[in-house]
Amino acid sequence: MTFNFTRFPTLKSERVLLRPLTIKDTKAVFDLRSSKEINKFIGTKRIESLDESKDFIKVCHNLYEEKKRVFWLIEFNNEVIGSIVLHQISIHNNYAEIGYKLKPEYQHKGLMSEAFKAVLNFGFNNLNLKTIEAFTHKNNLASITLLKRYDFVFQKDRKCNTYDFNRIFKLVNGSSI
Q1: Is the pTM of this model over 0.85?
Q2: How far is CA 133 from the centre of its chain?
Q3: pLDDT bucket at 38, cuts 50 / 70 / 90
């Protein structure tokens, strides 16, 4: 592993900046994680207060320190427009899951694709992951299209234990990125 979790990795693409979240981002995190529209395909409970947002930020920091999560905010033109995360990281098993959210007004502009590619490259090249999986709602066509663009393969024989509506996609080795 070339990454040791001592300094948070800030990533850049042509148009977006992926950066760590801080307590100053409480409102931005609240906006992303409380929105009914942004979270319509996600089964986890939406945040309902700024205090819950602060708690979420603390959890992300703690899981980063435990080498189990890297959670980035996505900035475009100095505005937080979404988030992307590698979580359930297992250095021992060279595995992580990827998750992502984007404000509706920034969707279908290629911004998430840029962030996604940067995170996949980080996962495979810096964390030495062998497998990255994504759990996405069966009706989230934009997410499924993004996953297929990066050669994730639908795991038709696997079922999500948490949400029946989720479908599992897997990318092994990352050789095509």
Answers
A1: yes
A2: 11
A3: confident
